[in-house]
Amino acid sequence: MSQAMKRCSAHTCAAVAVRRALSSGAATPSVYTRFLLKLSHYFYDVENILDWNNWLRSQGVIHKNRLFGYAQKNFGNNVAAAYYILTLRGSFRFAGQSEWFRPDSRGRFSYDFMSTPDAKIEEVDLSGTLINHNGLENLVKQNKLQTLSLRGCPEVDDWFLARLHVFGESLVELDLSHCSRITVGGLAALQNLRKLERLDISGLPRLQNPGLVRILLEEMLPHCQVSGAEYEQGLIQPDSQEQTEGHHEASTHTGLRHL
Amino acid sequence: MPGSDWSPIELTPGLPPERADVVIVGGGVVGWSIAYWLKMKARVRDGLRVLVVEKDPTYSQASTVLSCGGIRQQFSLKENIMLSLFSAHFMKNINNHLCVVNEDPVDLQFNHSGYLFLASEKSAHIMEENYRTQRYVGAKVALLSPSQLKERFPWMNMEGVALASLGLENEGWFDPWSLLNALRRKAVSMGVYQCFGEVTGFKCAANLAETTDGEVLNVQRIKYVNVRMPNSLEYQPVECAVVVNAAGANSGKIASMLGIGLGPKESVSGVPLPVEPRKRFVYVVHCPDGPGLDTPFLIDYSGVYCRREGLGGNYITGIFFQMKHFALTVHLFQVSNAWAGFYDYNTFDQNGIIGLHPLVPNMYFATGFSGHGLQQSPAVGLAVAELILDGGYKTIDLSALDLKRILLQEPILESNIV
Predict the structure, then answer these.
(1) Which end of chain B, N or C, is more open, meaning fewer C-beta atoms within 10 Å of its C-beta?
(2) Chain B partners within 8 Å of A226 (Cβ)
(3) pTM of the model
(4) How high is the pLDDT of residue B332?
């Protein structure tokens, strides 16, 4: 205990970040990562290097999600939002146009979006990007946003969902699958999205009862179709040796017990 | 023997160090928050020796862990709004602040359901005024008319409701024990000393000072804090420079040990610290066909509050026998559990007391939050650390909550308090 007190660090720690990376859906980390983690338990230098690495990575996320104030002031909110999405390697479509603006595989994109500064963004695809709750500041003025896809974003958490209330009047489709940090507490914040019609909550590892959460979400947003969780997920299955009639009774009882 | 704890002289385990720079009386969430920020601001390792003294290691009567855990920005005083906004931002990035090497990340189990205040006809104008203050300071709140309320929450009984105010962001409830443990773990990892013992007295150096009215004051500067070990008569006098009174419900007792409030009636020393323990009850109600995931933390115009707990149809409420008249249409409910805790109730104006007392120039007070200590603790911790180390407020200006308003008899009241 005293040794732990003596060697403290103010930066994000190696093991925390690795544990976070492990929980974000990667089945097993690579041999290299596990080897480094093992070494970091024995050597302070390795632990410090991993520490700095993770601090640099978190600084990178903060830098990517900074406020694009210069672009907002000089080119308007829509162009700034478009630029932000493209630098994050996401893609979007303006309202009234049918073609999508995407960066290529190396992250380069054309600046054609700057020619229409008054066009608001209607559909955004940010799957796999590093967007977090701070980055949403760049998008808050897009009040015509209808589709938002956040599939597999590692930095999207409950606080991000709480900020989505700014799109309460326009958001129709939301895809939250495979965002490992989301819990039920964040899904409760989706009550502010009254126009939501399609919600995808598949692959959320921190939801213990996906079936129950789906029922509660459908109750909370009556016009919304929730996909990604089956009603039977999380139910206690009856014993397979019981009779079929016993089966029916047991399943209704387990349904009630589950609720 | 080298490497073993045995020594021929029998030493009492758990004694505090003989000397410390800052002694924080009270190991609740406010006390540990102050300890964390003190160490955070004093960047040099071992630059400041901080000791936190807590009477009860089980926290069986501490207000922190018995609290409902709600955080809201819907206050009428702008200092209160700023305090909880800062605390919400702190909790947003809590792992950047409070993570420790080789330990699990902090999980506060934050539910972002927001607070919903319901106002009757008489108090609707107060709610509108508060709404303007809240928007000005930066809280994200929306006003709802009864028809909008009915459309949002169809299960609600709208009897007598004229206006409602819903928190959209940064409001909800969380697990207070997780926050306390996270602050404690990080502070201990930075070198804060923790002692389980009771503060039974102070040894002071007395001086005489004269006020502008000619009144002679007996100013006492604390030199030693006597910390008594649990279940024992043994005590350790800890020599210290600064003492922080964050003892919550027992702050009045600590203040009276220094003679605050024990002098003649009309003098400065005759005004006691107006913080006393107030017992509050919390009931867990099970209602299987109650409202679901969208239940916010409901607060009625009569002061009754209710929030969802978990996903199994359980609710936490303050006054259960009034729930029938309450805004929810609950057909069948049953009380399954209950507990009670103390508010550190400020009998003067129910807002926090932060600052120095003229009679004790090295005791800082951070108490009297009357039920809001948990939600304001990260911000209050930073404010007190700035007072101690920088001599003044840097981040949030809390001069309105200073202790001298008690002596000048100028209350700052908050409307809509629960």
Answers:
(1) N
(2) none
(3) 0.89
(4) 63
